[in-house]
Specification:
254 residues; alpha/beta; eight-stranded parallel β-barrel; 10 helices; globular; binds 2-phosphoglycolic acid
Length: 254
Amino acid sequence: MTREIHVFGNWKMNQNKGDIYKFFEELGDSLSELKCQKGISPQFIHLPLALELATDYGIEIGAQNCSHESKGAFTGDVSPTGIKDLGASFTLIGHSERRAIFNEDHALLAQKTKLALENGLKVVFCIGETLEEREADKTLEVLQTQLSEGLKGIAKDQLENIILAYEPVWAIGTGKVATPEQAEEAHQFIRQYASDNLGFSAEELIILYGGSVKPSNAEGLFKMSNIDGGLVGGASLIADDYLALCKIAHEVNS
Ligand code: PGA
């Protein structure tokens, strides 16, 4: 089975309404014909607008996070039920910014993942080591713990609805991209570990690379046999760059 290359954009806390209209206007007609899986995660408040504008382009729209509970007294939180109800199809969970800035731990991430899946959302589950951990030769150990603890208790029949994203923290928003070989090594490990220990299908599991992906470095990454596309921050805010990344994915897929 050949896994299709994905180009998923994480807009983080960026883009106002005007920027979003402009982004979709600038994408142009050719995008929908490109053979690759396309996704974008805007801020919660812009999910309805993005869902409306993305339909013509075949871009899946997802959230960047969701609550660990489906309803109740959780002021300021956003439930996976509500995200699904809007028509979004997936959510990111465990992004390093959620882990580091909002102190989201393994147990919380496992709870969120379980609930999102139970509510019919696909989950893009993010993992990755810090520079300190890499320099201490702890990368694989960290990835293993993030996977085994963060995906604890997930029903086996839900695993096909999980995409993994390897995002080394030192490469996110820094312009320092992992080399295709560095990323491939981590992806290979993740695929092996996830299939041997967690029940994923090694053949079918999609693993995205994230961390300073842009049109100038994407080809080398997307061509690696264990890298199934990118989770892209900064470059996904620019329509021309998003389109260029989808063109590269299309070429690799063809
Ligand atoms: P970046 O962000 O592409 O801007 O490095 C990636 C991410 O955080 O998902």
